[in-house]
Amino acid sequence: MPWVDACGTDDIDAEDLIRFDHGGRTYAIYRSSDDDYFCTDGKCTHEDVHLEDGLVMAYEIECPKHNATFDYRTGEALRAPACVNLNTYKVKVEAGRVLIEI
Amino acid sequence: MAGIVIVGAGECGTRAAFAARDAGYDGAILLIAGEAGLPYDRTKLTKPIVPGEAPFGGLSALRKPICHANQLDAAGITLLAGTPVGKVNSDARQVTLTDGRVFGYDRLLLAVGATARRLACRGGDRALGFRTIDHAQTVFAKARGKVVIAGAGLIGLELAAVLSGQGAEVTLVEAEALPLSRTVPAGLAERLMARHQAEGVRLLCGSEIEKVTPGFVTLSNGKRLPAPSLIAAIGVVPNTTLGAMAGAMIDNGICVDAQMRTSVPGIYAAGDCANVTLPNGQRVRSETWRCAMAQGIVAGQVMAGQTASYDDPNWLWSDQYDLTVQVVGQVADRPDALRQLPEAELQFSIDSDGALIGVAGIGRAAAMTKDIILAQRLIRAGAKVTARALSDPAIDLKSLLRTQGDV
Ligand SMILES: Cc1cc2nc3c(=O)[nH]c(=O)nc-3n(C[C@H](O)[C@H](O)[C@H](O)COP(=O)(O)OP(=O)(O)OC[C@H]3O[C@@H](n4cnc5c(N)ncnc54)[C@H](O)[C@@H]3O)c2cc1C
Ligand code: FES
């Protein structure tokens, strides 16, 4: 799978996320408070709601709609109403750019 | 077969079943649903319709299952749908369905929800109720042209938005001076009201329906309105019959502690049917989705032998047109702090000790949810806040949470 240049490392605040759309699909890219980067599917597995307006705290993303939480490092669904995990994608940082393998 | 028996497969009962299994319970779990089919999300029945998906005739879009059959199978949960439980015998630890089938239980959860309140006035039984998918089917098939809705609470308002969006001419009759007056601050209620009026919904506040005759309603001020379709959305009554039969204490719901235990050993209750005493002694009977889910999860965990306790602040949301309303905790009519965001407004309530106790928001969902989630965490943490910090949109609420230490 190809590596895609998604954004600059500074385009995401620490402990936050941005939305990234590519090839007709949508993703969420996270920056943790210790400046690690992660990528998951953009939409919650409960309903068709984007996680971009959700809240990132530590390694968790809380869905803005019904507050399901996921570990964005592994995609694991941590709290109801979601019970299906998020897909995750590999991420690497090169020369100030965040690349994701999709 | 004993094991855990759950009566009622709404949000609460269904979540409880999965939570018990997730908590490691390895006995039988039987989920008995009075309504036919898979458990479905009741809140979807009145939510804004995706363009192109009209509720009229497109009812399958309204039926959003809470879980699918393969998820129930995978969790080893037996769903028995379509026949209600008619009796509970707490001495024999048995429930009996209305068709005579008997099931034993080790632990029983009553997650039987609530029933739409009937209009008490003369002829009031002509009004349609709105609680179940069957009700939705009836209402969406009939309610065209002129529609009168009794009650401008959450359901009445959402229904008014959906029906007027479908071309119906909606009149809302509300006894109080403002819609949703028991749940949202006056300032937000006024904004909601203005929005409904702008969409062509007529709101008659401060009036009550005194009499219903075929095709008409008569109001307390003597006015007569044509009402070929009449819907009662005047609140709900908790279902307590089975709880009472089991010998559980009843007081505006089935009384339970924060572990969802009733006064009868082995019997639990949660969700809209339960009146919960929180760890701080406060009593709440919630009527919201979020609370039903959270209480169901606690009940499931406790029945599975885990330690769990319910202490969530009340949490309600409603979608009307493209507006979302969210309320967490206790809000007063006069807010202590206002936070203006580009597309949303938040109102905060602070108690005399300086602790945040409630937030209410109105606006575009995406604009406010992050702050609502943070406020909910601040409320849970009993965080001390200042009106100045809350009112300044440049101050990230996350930073307030940080200063509270470990939450
Ligand atoms: C149209 C509508 C819109 C709503 N929108 C919102 C919203 O936007 N936000 C929000 O927070 N809340 C909303 N609510 C409220 C929310 O849906 C309820 O708080 C929640 O569904 C309560 O869940 P529950 O499982 O406790 O009860 P219920 O959902 O009432 O489920 C109880 C189930 O038990 C079954 N039952 C009862 N007696 C028996 C018996 N003897 N045997 C077997 N089964 C039995 C019932 O048939 C029912 O299916 C809405 C409610 C309605 C009706
Ligand atoms: S859409 Fe994410 S929790 Fe419901």
How would you summarize what this structure contains?
Chain A is an all-beta fold. Chain A has no helices and ten strands. In chain A, 0% of the residues lie in helices and 48% in strands.
Structural account:
The complex is a heterodimer of chains A (102) and B (407). Chain A has strands at 3-8, 16-22, 25-31, 37-41, 55-57, 60-62, 69-71, 77-79, 88-94, 97-101. With 102 residues, chain A is an all-beta fold. Chain A has a single domain, classed as 3-layer Sandwich (Rieske Iron-sulfur Protein), CATH 2.102.10. Chain A starts with a strand and ends with a strand. In chain B, strands 3-2-1-7-18 form a 5-stranded parallel beta sheet. Chain B has 407 residues and is of the alpha/beta class. The two termini of chain B are 42 Å apart. The model of chain B has no long low-confidence stretch (mean pLDDT 93). The relative contact order of chain B is 0.13. Chain B folds into 3 domains: 4-116 and 237-303, 3-Layer(bba) Sandwich (FAD/NAD(P)-binding domain), CATH 3.50.50; 124-234, 3-Layer(bba) Sandwich (FAD/NAD(P)-binding domain), CATH 3.50.50; 322-402, FAD/NAD-linked reductase, C-terminal dimerisation domain (Enolase-like, domain 1, 2-Layer Sandwich), CATH 3.30.390. Chain B has helices at 11-22, 69-74, 133-142, 154-165, 186-198, 241-245, 289-303, 365-380, 387-391, 397-402; strands spanning 4-7, 29-33, 77-81, 85-89, 94-97, 102-104, 107-110, 114-116, 146-150, 169-174, 202-205, 209-213, 216-219, 224-226, 229-232, 236-238, 254-256, 267-269, 274-277, 283-284, 315-320, 323-329, 337-341, 344-350, 356-363. Bound molecules: flavin-adenine dinucleotide and FE2/S2 (inorganic) cluster.
